[in-house]
Design a protein that fits this description.
Layout: E1 12-15, E2 18-21, H1 32-36, E3 39-41, E4 44-47, E5 50-51, H2 54-67, H3 76-89, E6 95-103, E7 117-125, H4 132-137, E8 139-148, H5 165-176, E9 181-186, E10 191-194, E11 198-203, E12 208-211, H6 220-231, E13 236-239, E14 249-256, E15 260-267, E16 270-271, H7 276-303
Parallel strand pairs: 8-9, 8-15, 12-13
Antiparallel strand pairs: 1-2, 1-7, 3-6, 4-5, 4-6, 6-7, 9-10, 11-12, 11-14, 14-15, 15-16
């Protein structure tokens, strides 16, 4: 399969206040964010030209930057407007938006107090993260060799670039062994998350159990699905989950901007059967993310 490289495309990317041609969106090799991971980012989905929960993502981008000790020089409203501008400029109907902020190249070293802070926003068409066939069959996962870190050792409540190094390593090993993804435990040995998504289990008590996000990101999609589950009559239990408790789960699924709601068929030795709960929440989430775009289409249609 031939890949379309991300540095050689048509279109525009927003950088530090203006749109620039896609191929001209560059930074210096001695940028602090590249060497010391002093960067934060967001992942957002576009449905029918509308970015789902845009402001929540932008607010989290600011919070992540603050946790890393820097301030983004654009307000939430300005970043929201820039994201919409990028989507429009690239004619994205259904796609993905990636805002990223990082320390520049004025100082090269662990200390970078004087470095300017930069912000870029790109958007591109993005199909389903997993194929429809894989999504309906459920994902095959392994348990990662790497663990989510103790909050005393990393800014775990931020969406910081450096925190994803072990996610890439975990996912690469999983894929090399024929799996779709990997489940990461935390430093205590409790179930945490997948490499880029949160996880839920339907337990034998009929309730949806999900790990307490005390050392990993409390995903915006995770919170959305919790709300949808409650609306559909399911009780949510947030707690520490031991991996051996997965034997008590009948269904399991991931949630995230990219994966949306995707059932799991197995995690190592533990088997699950995607069923009514997975199907209900998949449909509910699909309807929820399209609600804003459908409303916009109705308004546009009536105005026409």
């Amino acid at each position: 399969m031939s890949l379309m490289p991300f540095d050689d495309r048509d279109g525009s990317i927003w950088m530090d206040g203006k749109l620039v041609p896609w191929r001209d969106a560059k930074l210096h090799v001695l940028t602090h964010g590249l060497h010391y991971a002093s960067g934060v980012f967001e992942g957002e989905r576009v449905y029918g030209k509308e970015i789902f929960k845009l402001t929540e993502h932008t607010e989290r981008l600011h919070q992540s930057a603050e946790l890393l000790g820097f301030k983004i020089p654009f307000t939430v409203a300005e970043i929201d407007a820039a994201c919409d501008q990028v989507v429009a400029a690239n004619n994205i109907v259904d796609g993905y938006v990636r805002p990223i902020a990082w320390r520049g190249s004025e100082m090269m070293g662990v200390s970078a107090q004087q470095n300017t802070i930069h912000l870029a926003i790109a958007a591109w068409e993005w199909p389903a993260y997993f194929s429809p066939e894989a999504r309906m069959r459920g994902l095959k996962m392994r348990i990662s060799d790497w663990a989510r870190p103790d909050p005393r050792t990393a800014p775990t409540r931020s969406k910081a670039a450096g925190l994803y190094m072990i996610c890439t390593m975990s996912k690469h090993k999983a894929e090399a062994e024929g799996y779709h993804d990997a489940l990461m435990l935390d430093w205590r040995g409790y179930v945490a998350e997948a490499t880029g998504a949160n996880i839920f289990f339907l337990m034998e008590d009929g309730k949806l159990h999900t790990p307490d996000p005390d050392c990993f990101l409390d995903g915006i999609t995770r919170r959305t699905v919790i709300d949808l589950a409650r609306r559909n009559g399911y009780e949510i239990v947030q707690r520490h989950i031991k991996p051996e408790e997965m034997v008590q789960a009948t269904e399991a699924f991931l949630t995230g901007t990219a994966v949306e709601v995707t059932p799991i068929a197995s995690i190592g030795e533990y088997q699950f059967t995607p069923g009514k709960v997975c199907e209900t929440l998949m449909k509910a989430y699909d309807a929820e993310v399209r609600r804003g775009s459908d409303k916009a289409a109705l308004i546009t249609g009536s105005a026409a």
